[in-house]
Each structure stands twice: as structure tokens, then as C-alpha cells.
Amino acid sequence: MSExxxxxxxLVAGGGPVGLATxxxxxxxxxxxxxxxxxxxxxxxxxxxxxVNIRTMEHLRxxxxxxxxxxxxxxPVDWSxxxxxxxSLAGYELSRFTGVLGxxxxxxxxxxxxxxxxxxxxxxxxxxxxxxxxxxxxVTGWSVEGLTQxxxxxxxxxxxxEGRRAVITAEYVVGADGSRSAVREAIxxxxxxxxxxxxxxxxxxxxxGLLENVAHGPAIQYWTVNPDAPGILGxxxxxxxxxxxxxxxxxxxxxxxxxxxIRAATxxxxxxxxxxxxxxxxxxxxxxxxxxxxxxxxxxxxHLNPPFGGHGLNTGIGDAVDLGWKLAAVLDxxxxxxxxxxxxxxxxxxxxLVIAEATANMKALPVDLGSPELQAEGWAGDRAREAAxxxxxxxxxxxxxxxxxxxxxxxxxxxxxxxxxxxxxGRPGYRLPHVRLGENGSLYDELGAGMSLVLVxxxxxxxxxAADGFRTAATRRAVPLTVVDLHRPDLHDRFGSGIxxxxxxxxxxxxxxxxxxxxxxxxxxxxxx
Length: 529
Known about the structure:
Elements lengths: L6 E7 L3 H11 L5 E5 L13 E2 L1 H9 L3 H7 L9 E5 L6 E6 L16 E2 L2 H13 L4 E5 L1 E9 L2 E8 L4 E11 L6 H5 L4 E5 L4 E7 L14 E4 L6 E5 L5 E7 L3 H16 L6 E8 L2 E5 L3 E2 L2 E3 L5 E2 L7 H21 L9 H21 L3 H4 L8 H23 L2 H5 L28 E2 L3 E2 H4 L4 E5 L5 H16 L4 E5 L6 H4 L3 E4 L5 E5 L6 H8 L3
Parallel strand pairs: 1-2, 1-10, 2-7, 4-13, 10-19, 23-24
Antiparallel strand pairs: 3-6, 4-5, 8-9, 9-10, 11-17, 12-15, 12-16, 13-14, 14-15, 17-20, 18-19, 21-22, 23-25, 25-26
Helix pairs in contact: 1-4, 1-7, 7-8
């Protein structure tokens, strides 16, 4: 454990993946950051999130962590790109989705595919990354219990498991301390929303030889449409460890009948070892505000959604990136007085959208799709399975092919984006369209840590004028600016503009074909001044 500091620029409460991602974003920008986390080590008992989506992988690539994560993932990215619906692992296959969750090659749309990996693998990697960044300090064994805001600082009260107490002074605080957030409580924010009516029971179990005996071949998830065992199963690794969720099963029933459920879902009588259990009920809730003065909320401290679609952790990583670059800009002196307020303006509509999408995904679960005829032989069984397969395709396709939500959701009403009439994919407020450079390169690799001015073809008079104008404006305002000249006029129709100002999070802030008359005015709006 690192020594407990007395002061820092940013204190992050909570050292889960979102809190650690916040620290990485800040630390790589030279901001002193302290992460307070009560757990001494990362538990492997509950894998929690298993889907790291394309957008998160793009952030990990920027941090130099995409390849290390893939190297540690128990299931290689090419192991399977399928999700199967079946009556059991040994029973009838009802439907199949391929190229799911961003695991398929994206051509020019993206370089980094998604990755199936237990959350604890990502969390351990991020811990190591934080330990390797000089301005960052990870302090374990301590918890945030309260805070007091003052005009120029926040005094944060922390305590350890032995009852010792201390106060750390920070310029800003980020609450990444989960659904029971002490930071959220301290600023008087609260969840607004609903809780699902049905409980669920998660388990991790060991089943030697099960993977080799699945009738449907490798898949990252098997959804069992079975009246005795409606739920989801999937391999955590290639060494007999599995995870599952039994739908509509409460804690008492799960503890009493978990093995029977697993046998019904697998369609086998094999003896399984249950390694851990995790009863849960889906929540569709959004904090009534995500910030107060010098304190902000990210991840589960700010929003909770059903896990269907795999958006929860990834949305939290997006929060960390959005807030992280803005905090760094303010602390470095080039971010304006309105920049931090844009965090809520940008992220809350997206968080609300994710909750809505995940809730819609939850409305069609195996417990709702089953019928006694699915197990029958002959014409009646064939017809029932065909009908079930059709309904599954109709109701679940959007859940597993949600790249529009992952890649094409933007900040339409952001106060720090300059609206434009761009016709291509390069709309202000949205992710910069990806371009492959060479065999394994990416346009994103060429962007700077601060603002970037992307020129489709820097040889044009308009591009030259724009580059000169933005360089001068950026120098006078101490804004870090990188000019990227693609020399690719063929990309104009795809981008919709020839000149694009791109933020540190790879979102477009402004786009046009002509050099602006007042580049400093655009830069001031984008930096929240």
C-alpha cells in the first residue's frame, strides 16, 4: 500500500475500473491524483462485467493498454464471435447471432475490436498502470467517508479498517465509489428511477470437460430457453471455469438449488463445483445530478442499468475519459470556467440513453421466451423451435449488434461543441470517423494529447490558413494543439468536411471546409471559456 498523502490535485474515491481509468486519464496528462480504495486486492470471485466494447478498447489503445489486456484475456478475441440460444448446452439450438458485441473485424470503421474478459483482469491491469504513472498514487485499505467543500479546495475524510482517520485536501474530487457512493451522499445527490421486479442469481462454477461437450460449439454466451433453467452461461476461460445467471431466482432458491439449475441448463448430470454466488436485481437509476462544485460522480455512483448489452462499465469508462481530460485542462490552465459544467451536459443524456437501451434489452429474456413444446420431438417441437428462433432474432438482435450506440452516439447539445451542417460521419459532437493507416495503424494514433486539427488535405489554401490561424490562437491561449495532415482528399465525403478540430477524447468539436474568420472564438468555446 502506498503512503497516505495529505494533499493532491484530484482525489478519486473508489479504485474499481472506472476510478482507475479516471486516474490513468489524469496521470498521463501530468495531474497529481490519489485513488482511495478499501480493497487491498482484486477479487476473482465475481467476474461482473465481461464485455469490454470497441470504444473502451480505443481508449485502452490510447493509454497503451489494449494489447496487454488482450494478452491477459483468458479467451482470445478470435475464440468465438457467437452467442447461441438453446434449450440447454446439450439440447436443441434455437438461434444464433454472429459477429456480436464488436468482436468482428470492422474494416475501416474501427481498428480495435471488442474483447471478452472478466472485469478483474481489466482491473488488475489498470492497477498496474496507475502504479506505473508517477503523478498517480493508489492507496488501498482506506475508504472515503465524507467531504467538506471550500471555495478553492475539498477536504476529504478517509478511514481505514482499524478505525484510523485522516483528511486529504484536494482541488477536485471524483466519486467512483459505486452504487453505495459516500461521495454521492456527501453532495446530497440521489438516484432517481426504478428497480426490476425479478431477482437474479449469478454463479461461478467449475465443470471439468463441459466446454468440450457443448453441442453447439464455442460461443461467448449461451442463453438457455428452458422452463427449468432460464438464463445465460458462458466460459470464463478454457480451463473449465464458467459463469452463469439464473433469471427469476432469488438468493434463497439459488443457494438451495443452484446445482440443479446448472445441471438443467447444461443438460448434463456432471458434478459441478460452485465457486461463488452473486444474487442481484437490475436497477434502472440515474443520479439526479452528477456534480456539485468541485465534486463529480462517474460510473455506478452516477448511473445504474441492467447488464444486458454490456454497457455499464463501458459507459463508466466514457465518463472517466470525458471528465478526466476536462479536469486536466482546467488544472493545466487552458480549460475555461465553463468546461467542467459540460461534463453533465454531455454525459447525462448518454447515460439516460444507455439505461433505456439496457431496459429494452431486459424485456425479452429466456424466462419470457420458453414453452413446453420446445423440448418436444416431431412437427410440434420443430414448429415451436422455429417460432422461438424467429422471435429471438426479432427481439435480441439490437442487444448484440449495438455499434450505433457504442460508436455513433454524440453530444448534440453540448455547450462546448460548435454545431455545423456537416453531411458525412464527421459531425461536431461525435466520434471522429476512424481511418486505418497502414497495416495496423490508426488515425487516432496520430492525434495529440490536447486539441488536434485534422486536415483532410493540408495542401489546400483553406487548410493552410486554418492551420496557421488555429496555431496562433492556441499559442496565445496555451492550448496544446497537434496538426494532423492526412493528405487524403478522398476522405472528404466520408468526413463531410476538410478541416476538423478534435478534442482530447477523439470527439469532433468543430468542422468546416473553409478557414474560420475567428479561430480564437472557436477555440474559446471548445475550451469552455
